[in-house]
Amino acid sequence: MKILVFSDTHLTHTFEPNKFELLKKIILKADRVIINGDFWDGYRTTFDTFIASDWKRLFPLLKSKKTVYLFGNHDRKSFMDKRMRLFSDTQSETFILRINGKNFIFEHGNRISPLLDESPLMPHFLNRITTRIAGFALKNISFLQFLHKRMNVIIKSKMEKRLKRDDILLCGHSHYPEIDLKHKFVNSGYIQNGKAHYLIIEEGKIIAKKEFYPKT
Fold it and tell me: Which of 37, 69, 80, 179 is the most exposed place for a label (fewest CB within 10 A)?
């Protein structure tokens, strides 16, 4: 079985045809799909407008792959309703697959390394503003991009003693793709701004993939 794992697509109500074609292609090639959080962005759109957008063309494809949907910090369970079943069969904070004697533990990562937006004291409108500013800065100011890698380091440090011998933690959240099996840690990366990082799991082997698509 070929399992596709992707995260951090941060879809909004704005449709991106080239990104759609990339997602369609990799979904169709898989036998099963796991979305590891931040599929859509609740700080930049609403659930109503997202599911009514042209991104709904992905939904039948995802349903056909019995998609597992893990919540992230930008697409929290509280941001949605039962219509999440339009594009997924299973919805959870954590999902575990037992493959070839290993426990593949899927979780977005925000519960392990929370950001400011996780604070109950942070108003939703302020999160929307800071999300846009942070996204622009991290994309365009190169020396700030070390923060992505730093988040992976934090997650590994926090989980080191919690993971058992046969466990592998697979996260998103940091937007920094990485396979570090020595520390039982994998990050699926992101699909945004013309870059697509994702994972394929086949016969227990984890393969990191990277593609480019034309930005619109």
Answer: 179
Region of 37 (left: φ > 0; alpha: ψ -120 to 50; beta: rest) is left
Tens of pLDDT along 98-116?
A: 999 999 999 999 999 876 5
The pLDDT assigned to 148 comes to 80
Q: Is the pLDDT of residue 214 over 90?
A: yes
Q: How confident is residue 119, by pLDDT bands cut at 50, 70 and 90?
A: very low
Walk me through the domains of the chain, giving residue ranges and CATH numbers.
Answer: 2-212 (3.60.21.10)
